[in-house]
Write a structure and sequence with these properties.
The complex is a heterodimer.
Chain A: E1 5-7, E2 10-13, E3 19-24, E4 31-37, E5 44-50, E6 53-57, E7 65-68, E8 75-79, E9 88-95, E10 104-105, E11 109-113
Chain B: E1 3-5, E2 10-14, E3 19-21, E4 24-26, E5 32-39, E6 46-52, E7 60-61, E8 64-69, E9 74-79, E10 88-96, E11 103-104, E12 108-113
Parallel strand pairs in B: 2-12
Antiparallel strand pairs in B: 1-4, 3-9, 5-6, 5-10, 7-8, 8-9, 10-11, 10-12
The chains are: A mainly beta, B mainly beta.
Chain lengths: 114, 114
């Protein structure tokens, strides 16, 4: 197992464009999380899936953001009509279900909106 | 809402010495988990150590140990025999017992001098 992977690693886009990021969790993990990390700050929770169900969403996840996990495996995070304030590192993590389980993080996708 | 505060933006330690990183948190919950994550430059975040709030004994993982003071809501990380590879951002994180999301502090950048 190669761990959590994210694609692309870097994305530069112009304001107003749509972008989509992909996360592939560790294969047996049924929980998947998205976080956003701005420069010099800690990650902030965006949303969480158990299998294909999106069970929790942060208030940070405005209506321009949508996340899916259609088959309970990989997940996509789409940002529509990007704004400069969306520039950040988008981190994906996965874990098994359970009481105290480690979340394994991917390398992140760094988004720059110009 | 839970908050996590790391009051030391940067810390420096001489190789082979010991350093302590501070973390305080605020919660009204009695059952929760605390974590320290390490984020090396341009590399993914990994779990260093975790502590269950119901356990009085402080967690230890090799050179890493914590000082958990539940009444004071304090959770510091001690790194003994510091190594060059310990240089990274360190994030303190909180998760309530019934929750899934991690709440992170703002991070402490640890520099290790040879």
């Amino acid at each position: 197992d190669t761990g959590v992977s994210q694609d692309p690693r870097h994305k530069i886009t112009k304001r107003g464009q749509n972008v989509t990021f992909r996360c592939d969790p560790i294969s047996e993990h049924n929980r998947l999380y998205w976080y956003r990390q701005t420069l010099g700050q800690g990650p902030e929770f965006l949303t969480y899936f158990q299998n294909e169900a999106q069970l929790e969403k942060s208030r940070l996840l405005s209506d321009r953001f949508s996340a899916e996990r259609p088959k309970g495996s990989f997940s996509t995070l789409e940002i529509q009509r990007t704004e400069q304030g969306d520039s950040a590192m988008y981190l994906c993590a996965s874990s098994l279900a359970g009481q105290v389980v480690e979340q394994y993080f991917g390398p992140g996708t760094r988004l720059t909106v110009t | 809402a839970q908050t996590v505060t790391q009051s030391q933006p940067e810390m420096s330690v001489q190789e082979a010495e010991t350093v302590t990183l501070s973390c305080t948190y605020d919660t009204s919950e009695s059952d929760y988990y605390l974590f320290w994550y390490k984020q090396p430059p341009s590399r993914q975040m990994i779990l260093v150590i975790r502590q269950e709030a119901y356990k009085q004994q402080n967690a230890t993982e090799n050179r890493f140990s914590v000082n958990f003071q539940k009444a004071a809501k304090s959770f510091s990380l001690k790194i003994s025999d510091s190594q060059l590879g310990d240089a990274a951002m360190y994030f303190c994180a909180y998760r309530r017992n019934a929750g899934n999301m991690l709440t992170f502090g703002g991070g402490t950048r640890l520099m290790v001098k040879p």
